[in-house]
């Protein structure tokens, strides 16, 4: 979730961008199978170190850009240039094809047919599935403040099950 507290002045300042990765991945799977295969099979190291509100973290994750479940369905997308680690544990023959595939994926993420652009106003909250959607923004000058927060899907689904159970008990 992104809560807009202060928005930059000017119509083209701080515009949010969302891309439906599942639509892009469907295109790759259907029309550019070699790109899809490379991005769904090549393991990439992802890392994120820092501190947020006094909480220190050191997250390390190894997974392809496109993660598939046991049925071959997309389960998540990993796409964050700042979090892609400098370690790339592949053979020399795999390096160039992977970067070419990643360049094509990135090109499609900027294709207007997959891209939604809009500007949040102060007080508005953007809630989205961070695994399905890739998000970014256009540049801005001046002041802009968005507070971000994350929900763990396991916790959300757990809470839904508990509430359904309690609701069913109250209607018996």
UniProtKB/TrEMBL annotation:
Domain of life of the organism encoding this protein: Eukaryota
Under InterPro entries, the record lists: AlphaKG_dependent_hydroxylases (IPR050411), TauD-like_sf (IPR042098), TauD/TfdA-like (IPR003819)
Keywords, in A-Z order: Dioxygenase, Oxidoreductase
Specify whether Calcium is a keyword of the entry.
Answer: no
A GO term from the CC aspect: mitochondrion
Q: Name one GO biological process term.
A: carnitine biosynthetic process
Tell whether Oxidoreductase is among the UniProt keywords. yes
User: What residues does the TauD/TfdA-like domain cover?
Assistant: 1-150
What SUPFAM superfamilies is this protein classified in?
Answer: Clavaminate synthase-like
The molecular function GO annotations come to: dioxygenase activity
Q: What is this protein called?
A: Gamma-butyrobetaine dioxygenase
Organism, by scientific name, is Cacopsylla melanoneura
């Amino acid at each position: 979730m992104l809560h807009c507290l202060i928005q930059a002045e000017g119509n083209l300042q701080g515009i949010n961008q969302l891309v439906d990765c599942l639509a892009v991945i469907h295109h790759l799977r259907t029309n550019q199978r070699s790109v899809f295969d490379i991005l769904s099979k090549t393991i990439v190291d992802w890392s994120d170190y820092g501190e947020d509100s006094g909480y220190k973290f050191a997250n390390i994750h190894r997974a392809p850009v496109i993660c598939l479940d046991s049925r071959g369905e997309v389960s998540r997308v990993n796409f964050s240039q700042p979090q892609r680690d400098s370690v790339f544990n592949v053979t020399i023959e795999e390096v160039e094809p992977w970067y070419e595939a990643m360049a094509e994926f990135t090109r499609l993420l900027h294709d207007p047919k997959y891209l939604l652009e809009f500007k949040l106003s102060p007080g508005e909250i953007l809630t989205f599935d961070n695994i399905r959607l890739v998000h970014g923004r256009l540049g801005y000058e001046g002041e802009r403040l968005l507070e971000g927060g994350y929900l763990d899907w396991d916790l959300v689904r757990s809470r839904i099950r508990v509430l359904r159970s309690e609701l069913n008990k109250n209607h018996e």
